[in-house]
């Protein structure tokens, strides 16, 4: 009897080392893969589903504050360090890797309004309601020693915010006036004023470090140059802006968090119309921070949610919320583009993953390749209805849904009204105004 | 000063002071200000200030002072003062503070705008990049400064090279010593240098100076000549000059037209412009001094009248709208052709020259430049004319030879008078009547001028047509001008993205958190209606899932296959050139192809059912034939028979006996939910989107390297590294050396693409 047997050379299929990948002889002739499209589609569908399955963005909760969290300070060099200030004047420094509070001290009477690290991260500046700027060392005091500020500067004006220049030793505060300070002097180098009583927030441009911007109580955003004797320009929106963040990769773009539930991205050179209006929040937006890649930003809102936006799109890509999280006051994006921190009224600081379904921990190269493939597939088939539906499906709190419904109703009503008015008035008398142009009242020179 | 002191007259001086003091001679009573101690105070606290001139409402003007000084002996000083006053500019009053601040702010803002504008290119590049790596790779060079570190190598020469050099030097010296040569090399070199830098001799210096002087003289002569030429008033001279210029331009233009049509177009524009300028300047009107002088005489002199009329005609011609003249020219040329055939006369020098010009335009150009040659030709013509006259004489056989000749000449010439006048306006044919008579050189010039004008206008017309053709596409591309766009630079700098990605910019499908969620079935989920997309979608087209899922693979679609792409492009190019016309015809025939729609319909139907009811052959090539080829056909057939999948009896189609109905039985409702109903943003055509979907990216379908390239994420970040904001060094950064192998491969591919 003849025995039929397949014999193969083991050299063709046995690996030399275990690190070597299996050699798979493969014929890529497309005629042999008639179902490749269908297979990829199913893979994309599965990847999307898995993405939602693993979407667990919440990392940890940092508790310790005894009052609502008011502001954040990101350490420019250390990723595991975060400073937070509370309504009771307490400042806490957190070790994020161990999820513990390393230091805590009462810095001010009343609110801590702003925290900023010096550019090398060795000093910490805090401003509070007691009209003082306090400078703290980043190093914790020795055991037995009390926490004491390195320097205390008494300001003549009320202070509402602070921002440190990224490239030199100057920092700026806002309040009644915008003041530019030098680290080595106790008096401001310059005060810039433009007929406004209160400036809420101030932010240095991280790229063109001479430029800075303030949000004022008269619903305006004011641009400054720290070398000029005068402010540069003012743009007035329909409602007050709460926070301002510059894009760290695109020097001329910044985004403001507005009281009217929207965020606006502006180009500094063309303030008349915003580049993009970012919708989706249902209550006042309280804070905004850019990802260090400049591609995305995160916003915190009074509606108890945190949303993540693509910087060039008008709708959010993700929404984070938990049952216990109250009005979110401040938000920050970590400098390695992985995490998001949110501080809220109910005294907690929360840490979230920037990408909800990202795997934490070590990722082996083959795993990485697979993740990349899944991402590519999801992107490729993003417009397919089933995939889109699954990828963009979110559970949100009822109050958000209700508010959304209400807002939509109001908007629809306004649209109908406008259409009716237009219908019954002379042609061209009621012009179509784009959504972008509606929100900017004027640009002052 | 000393003179003044000598002539010091106290009385006069006092008078002067008094006069100055009286200038503001209004009495001012003011409240006293108690700025210094005074022994007496007025009871009403009023006082008349002694130095009221200082505080007078009418301050002392400089003019007053000057007036006084003029009366005294200080006239010079007065003049000086006056001069100073008139020449010095008074500084303007500074702006009000708000206005000044506004200006400052504007300037500051402009500065910042400019500063921020620097980032346009960087940002545009970054936005269009397929993959961005963070943190940005910096160009910082790290040097190991530790004590045990190897010293930084700065010299290009290697150690071995240096050693070799030293040993060579030593060797040479040794050899020298052996020979006994003790000349100093340095001294030799010095000598050599001196030899090269030899000093000039005295004669040479003189010669050089003379040469320079000559050059200078030539230069001054030339400049003087140029100045003189500019001052020449002779009309004739200028006329000649102008003609020469025109001729030169014509020549240049013709040459350009052959060699560089674009430049010719430009030249044409320039010519046109000059014409327009002339039109605008409206010379040739009868308003110049020459014309005015003539007008006085015009009443009495017929010739003068004629001259003036001519001048006016010229002006009319110049100020005419160009398009009209063109059309006229064309008409004229058309008319001319039959005329020329009709009354071509060898006697007529103008006609001949014209025909010659038509036959060989280049030759004629040469002729025109050479007037003398023209004259010799004319003389020849006269001879011809004489011969012609003789012939006529013989034919007619008249007695009085001279008279007959004249009469015979008159008739044909008179015939062509009218058409001639039509063709060449402004040219009087009277002269031709008496061809023997020598014409004035002016007239000849004029004639030629006209010829040239004619030709220029023709050429202009032709070229204008070409130009218009060229201009049309540019006009289309130009958009109506809007207000200044601040972001124009950024927009201009943006590249087209090589890899388009679907952007879904719509609100999340939000749903309330409910505990019952787990119980919800997938069916329920599908019900949740999707809001219509807010992004602008240009075209809404249903995409057949078959096109998306089952693919007829084409090699050309493979992005990695550069070679095939190139071939395809070449083919396409050839196709474009050759078959464009054929295609146009095809499209017409295609349009009428589907006339018999009903038959087509039925054909589709039968085809469908045929497909559905065919038997499936399950045998696969190679299956079962383990021993290789050479199995008898009988065995194969038997086996194939066994493997033939027989289906149930053919089903009837649902639309079998409904002629006008076609029910597609292959579609499924389930699949419909998975199909894309509209082209997603930013894709603009169905073909683009399908192409992006069609190419597989998986490991199973493309080679490993391609897989890595296709699945590269858009943003790569590294764990545990701080991403610094954009740095200024990015503005001046040279192209980064790519470290990653995939990056390098991509770059190589791109370069290969560019090379093609």
TrEMBL record, chain A:
Localisation per UniProt entry: Nucleus, Nucleolus
Pfam family, any one: Sof1
Domain Sof1-like protein positions: 354-440
Gene Ontology CC terms, in alphabetical order: small-subunit processome
Keyword Ribonucleoprotein: yes
UniProt cross-references to SMART domains, sorted A to Z: WD40
Record-given protein name: DDB1- and CUL4-associated factor 13
Organism: Drosophila virilis (Fruit fly)
Lineage: Eukaryota, Metazoa, Ecdysozoa, Arthropoda, Hexapoda
UniProtKB/TrEMBL annotation, chain B:
Keywords attached to this entry: Nucleus, Phosphoprotein
Feature: compositional bias, Low complexity: 355-364
Nucleus among keywords: yes
Keyword Oxidoreductase: no
Positions of the UniProt region annotated as Disordered: 319-374, 396-417, 451-537
UniProt xrefs under InterPro entries: SSU_processome_Utp14 (IPR006709)
Family: Belongs to the UTP14 family.
Name this polypeptide is given: U3 small nucleolar RNA-associated protein 14 homolog A
Taxonomic classification: Eukaryota, Metazoa, Ecdysozoa, Arthropoda, Hexapoda
Encoding gene per record: Dvir\GJ13870
């Amino acid at each position: 009897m003849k025995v039929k047997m397949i014999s193969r050379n083991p050299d063709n299929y046995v690996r030399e080392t275990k690190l070597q990948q299996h050699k798979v002889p493969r014929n890529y002739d497309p005629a042999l893969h008639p179902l490749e499209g269908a297979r990829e589609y199913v893979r994309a569908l599965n990847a999307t589903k898995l993405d939602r399955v693993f979407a667990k963005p919440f990392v940890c909760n940092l508790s310790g504050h005894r009052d609502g969290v008011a502001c954040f300070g990101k350490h420019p060099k250390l990723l595991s360090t975060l400073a937070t200030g509370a309504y009771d004047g307490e400042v806490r420094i957190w070790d994020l890797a161990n999820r513990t509070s390393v230091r805590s001290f009462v810095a001010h009477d009343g609110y801590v309004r702003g925290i900023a690290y010096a550019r090398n991260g060795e000093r910490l500046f805090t401003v509070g309601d007691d009209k003082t700027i306090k400078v703290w060392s980043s190093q914790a005091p020795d055991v037995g020693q009390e926490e004491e500020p390195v320097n205390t500067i008494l300001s003549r004006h009320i202070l509402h915010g602070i921002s440190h220049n990224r490239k030199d030793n100057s920092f700026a505060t806002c309040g009644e006036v915008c003041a530019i300070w030098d680290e080595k002097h106790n008096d401001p180098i310059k005060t810039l004023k433009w007929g406004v009583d209160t400036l809420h927030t101030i932010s240095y441009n991280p790229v063109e470090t001479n430029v800075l911007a303030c949000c004022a109580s008269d619903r305006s955003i004011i641009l400054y140059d720290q070398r000029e004797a005068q402010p540069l320009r003012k743009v007035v929106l329909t409602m007050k802006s709460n926070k301002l963040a510059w894009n760290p990769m695109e020097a001329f773009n910044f985004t403001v968090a507005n009281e009217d539930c929207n965020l606006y991205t502006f180009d500094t050179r063309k303030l008349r119309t915003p580049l993009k209006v970012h919708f989706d929040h249902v209550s006042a937006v309280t804070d905004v921070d850019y990802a260090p890649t400049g591609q995305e930003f995160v916003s915190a809102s009074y509606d108890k949610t945190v949303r993540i936006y693509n910087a060039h799109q008008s709708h959010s890509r993700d929404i984070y919320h938990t049952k216990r999280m109250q009005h979110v006051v401040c938000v920050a994006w970590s400098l390695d583009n992985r995490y998001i921190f949110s501080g809220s009224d109910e005294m907690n600081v929360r840490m979230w993953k920037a990408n909800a379904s990202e795997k934490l921990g070590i990722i082996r190269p083959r795993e990485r390749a697979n993740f990349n493939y899944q991402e590519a597939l999801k992107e490729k088939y993003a417009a397919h209805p089933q995939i889109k539906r699954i990828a963009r499906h979110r559970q949100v709190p009822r109050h958000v849904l209700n508010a959304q419904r209400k807002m939509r109703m109001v908007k629809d009503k306004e649209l109908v009204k406008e259409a009716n008015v237009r219908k019954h008035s002379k042609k061209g008398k009621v012009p179509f105004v784009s959504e972008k142009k509606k929100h900017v009242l004027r640009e002052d020179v | 000063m000393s003179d003044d002191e000598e002539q010091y007259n106290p009385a006069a001086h006092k008078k002067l002071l008094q006069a100055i003091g009286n200038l503001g001679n209004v009495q001012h009573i003011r409240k006293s200000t108690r700025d210094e101690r005074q022994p007496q105070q007025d009871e009403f606290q009023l006082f008349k200030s002694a130095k009221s001139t200082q505080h007078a409402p009418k301050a002392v003007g400089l003019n007053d002072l000057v007036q006084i000084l003029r009366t005294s002996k200080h006239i010079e000083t007065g003049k000086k003062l006056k001069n100073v006053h008139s020449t010095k500019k008074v500084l303007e009053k500074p702006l009000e503070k708000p206005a000044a601040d506004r200006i400052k702010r504007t300037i500051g803002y402009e500065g910042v705008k400019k500063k921020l504008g620097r980032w346009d290119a960087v940002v545009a590049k970054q936005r269009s990049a397929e993959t961005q790596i963070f943190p940005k790779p910096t160009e910082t060079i790290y040097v190991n400064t530790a004590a045990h570190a190897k010293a930084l190598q700065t010299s290009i020469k290697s150690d071995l090279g240096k050693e070799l050099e030293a040993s060579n030097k030593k060797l040479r010296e040794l050899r020298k010593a052996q020979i006994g040569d003790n000349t100093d090399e340095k001294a030799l070199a010095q000598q050599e240098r001196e030899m090269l830098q030899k000093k000039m001799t005295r004669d040479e210096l003189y010669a050089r100076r003379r040469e320079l002087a000559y050059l200078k003289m030539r230069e001054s002569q030339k400049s003087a000549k140029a100045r003189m030429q500019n001052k020449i008033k002779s009309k004739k001279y200028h006329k000649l000059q102008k003609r020469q210029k025109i001729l030169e331009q014509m020549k240049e233009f013709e040459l350009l037209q052959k060699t560089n049509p674009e430049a010719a177009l430009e030249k044409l524009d320039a010519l046109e412009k000059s014409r327009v300028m002339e039109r605008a300047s409206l010379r040739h009107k009868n308003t110049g001094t020459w014309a005015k002088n003539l007008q006085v005489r015009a009443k009495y002199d017929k010739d003068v009248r004629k001259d003036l009329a001519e001048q006016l005609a010229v002006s009319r011609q110049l100020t005419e709208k160009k398009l009209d003249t063109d059309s006229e020219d064309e008409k004229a040329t058309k008319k001319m052709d039959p005329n020329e055939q009709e009354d071509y006369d060898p006697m007529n020098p103008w006609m001949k020259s014209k025909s010659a010009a038509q036959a060989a335009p280049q030759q004629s150009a040469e002729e025109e430049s050479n007037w003398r040659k023209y004259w010799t030709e004319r003389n020849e013509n006269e001879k011809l004319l004489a011969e012609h006259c003789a012939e006529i004489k013989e034919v007619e056989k008249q007695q009085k030879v001279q008279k007959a000749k004249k009469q015979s000449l008159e008739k044909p010439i008179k015939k062509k008078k009218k058409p001639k006048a039509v063709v060449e306006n402004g040219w009087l044919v009277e002269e031709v009547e008496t061809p023997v008579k020598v014409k004035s050189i002016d007239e000849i010039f004029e004639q030629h001028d006209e010829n040239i004008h004619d030709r220029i206008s023709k050429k202009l017309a032709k070229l204008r047509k070409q130009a218009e053709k060229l201009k049309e596409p540019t006009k289309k591309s130009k958009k109506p001008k809007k207000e200044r766009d601040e972001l124009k630079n950024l927009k201009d700098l943006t590249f087209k993205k090589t890899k388009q990605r679907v952007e879904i910019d719509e609100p999340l499908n939000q749903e309330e958190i409910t505990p019952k969620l787990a119980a919800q079935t997938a069916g329920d989920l599908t019900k949740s209606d999707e809001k219509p997309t807010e992004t602008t979608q240009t075209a809404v087209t249903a995409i057949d899932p078959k096109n998306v899922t089952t693919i007829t693979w084409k090699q050309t679609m493979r992005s990695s296959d550069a070679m095939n792409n190139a071939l395809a492009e070449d083919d396409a190019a050839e196709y474009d050139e050759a078959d464009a016309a054929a295609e146009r015809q095809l499209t017409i025939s295609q349009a009428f192809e589907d006339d018999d729609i009903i038959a087509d319909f039925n054909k589709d139907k039968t085809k469908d059912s045929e497909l559905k009811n065919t038997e499936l052959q399950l045998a696969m090539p190679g299956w079962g034939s383990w021993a290789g080829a050479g199995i008898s056909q009988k065995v194969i057939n038997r086996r194939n028979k066994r493997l033939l999948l027989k289906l149930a009896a053919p089903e009837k189609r649902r639309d079998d006996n409904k002629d006008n109905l076609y029910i597609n039985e292959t579609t499924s409702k389930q699949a419909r939910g998975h199909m894309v109903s509209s082209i997603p943003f930013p894709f603009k055509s169905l073909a683009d989107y399908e192409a992006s979907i069609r190419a597989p990216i998986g490991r199973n379908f493309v080679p490993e390297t391609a897989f890595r390239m296709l699945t590269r994420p858009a943003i790569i970040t590294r764990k545990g590294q701080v991403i610094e904001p954009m740095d200024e060094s990015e503005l001046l950064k040279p192209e980064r050396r790519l470290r990653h192998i995939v990056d390098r491969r991509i770059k190589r591919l791109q370069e290969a693409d560019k090379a093609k």
